[in-house]
Amino acid sequence: MNSRKRRIYYWTASLLVFCVITLFELGPLIWMGLTSIKPAGSEFSIPVRIFPEQPTGENYRTVTGEGFNIQRALGNSLIVSSTAMIGTLLLSSMAAFVIARLRFRCRHTAFFTIQLAGLVPPIIVIAPTFILLRNTGLLGSLWAMILPHMAYGIPLATLLITGFFGSIPVEIDEAARIDGAGSGRIFFRILLPVISPALFSAGVLSFLGSWGDFMHAFTVSLGLPRLQTVPVAILSFSSAFQLQWTWIAAGVMISVVPVVAIVVLFQRYLIGGLTRGAV
User: Fold this and answer.
1) Residue 244: how many CA atoms within 13 Å on its side-chain side?
2) pTM of structure
């Protein structure tokens, strides 16, 4: 087999694998999009129709109307995810700075302890977290979601930012100290602007993790509509009217739009931040 045929086989196989992976990843989202524009009830028709015969936007008007008001849930999700992201970045960047740039006896132990905490699935600690939030009087507020989401995001963010700090020459710190700068000034004025790609990547991952959380938000919201985030609000679409999948699909598509917009607009910075500190 000559080199030209090998290249053809290679690109054909690569294209086939790419199509299979793309269909596997985007298939559910495409199906949701098609279901969201079907007339209510037509999703149960036999045989199943992939494409709607009469596309309609009535489902979107329903979930954004007074009966469901998904806009309130979107606002809650935005507040919770953004605040948790900011807190996660602040705490994890400070922890990463101490671990990567300062020399003290237990810095490696501290790093591995943080990563060990990140290996614990959040669903395992829902019960003790609920009790802790109840004892501190935070139940029934958005802080009951913000603070745990910050804790859940710190291990991964610390891992990413610590690796990025490791790629920055230590001579920058030494030169700043010679000029009289302390650790705080080095961190805030010199290193934070340099590690902005890592901060962006860690921030996006923290935002997405908080945005898609369901179990914790469902537990601590206590069934109060004013505290519902998007995943919890979408559940109410199904429980209120015995599984109207067209309404659920419309709610899912609305909730996906902000996430897709963030990833598409800033994917270059996201990928750069994830890979630059890898070595």
Assistant:
1) 21
2) 0.80
Please report, for residues 12, 29, 55, 278, the alpha-carbon distance to residue 24 in angstroms, rounded to integers and kept in the order given.
Answer: 18, 10, 25, 28
What pLDDT does residue 2 have?
66
Q: Are 73 and 230 contacting, i.e. CB atoms less than 8 angstroms apart?
A: yes
Q: Round the CA-based radius of gyration of the chain to a whole number and report it.
A: 23
What's the CA gap between 143 and 80, in Å, rounded? 8
Helix axes 107-118, 143-166, angle to 10 degrees: 130
Measured in whole angstroms, the distance separating CA 226 from the mean position of its chain's CA atoms is 22
Spacing of C-alpha 264 from chain mean position? 14
Summarised one tens digit per residue, pLDDT across range 185-237 is 888 888 888 888 888 888 888 888 888 888 888 888 887 878 888 888 887 76
DSSP string, 89-157: HHHHHHHHHHHHHS--TTHHHHHHHHHHHHTS-GGGGHHHHHHHHHHTT-TTSTHHHHHHHHHHHHHHH
CATH ID of 66-276, from 3.40.50.1820, 3.40.630.30, 3.40.50.150, 1.10.3720.10: 1.10.3720.10
Query: Residue 107: which residues within 8 A CB-CB, separation 6 or more?
Result: 98, 99
